[in-house]
Amino acid sequence: MSTPPEFEFRTSSACKYDPNDRRCVEVATNVAGKVAVRNSVTGEAVEFTAVEWIDFLSGAKLGEFDLSA
């Protein structure tokens, strides 16, 4: 039995390092068919299928998740 590959996280290019505020989003796309998003402070991660991730990004670009209400 083989071990599943581990996610290799990278920090968002929009994240600017601030030693007083280490909150950043990290994303891993190295596992086929999956995308993981992790909180850089807590290490907690959420895993998506590639299709879910594409749908999420499309919705975000259209403003679906804006908090203007």
Short description:
This protein is an alpha+beta fold.
What does this structure look like?
The protein is α+β, with helices and mostly antiparallel strands and 69 residues long. The chain has one domain. Helix content is 17%, strand content 25%. Strands 1-2-3-4 form a four-stranded antiparallel beta sheet. It is flat, with a radius of gyration of 14 Å. The N and C termini lie far apart (50 Å). The model has no long low-confidence stretch (mean pLDDT 86). It holds the Pfam family DUF397. It comes from Streptomyces palmae. Residues 9-61 form the DUF397 domain.
Tell me the span between the first and last alpha carbons: 50 Å
Name the overall outline.
flat
Q: Give a quick account of the main beta sheet: strands, pairing sense, barrel closure.
A: 4 strands, antiparallel
Helix amount: 10-25%
Structural class: alpha+beta
Number of helices: 1
Unreliable spans: none
- Helices and strands, in order, run as EEEEH
Number of strands: 4
Mean pLDDT: 86
The spatial strand order of the largest sheet comes to 1-2-3-4
- C-alpha Rg, in Å? 14 Å
Can you tell me the number of structural domains? 1
Protein name: DUF397 domain-containing protein
InterPro entries: DUF397
Domain DUF397: 9-61
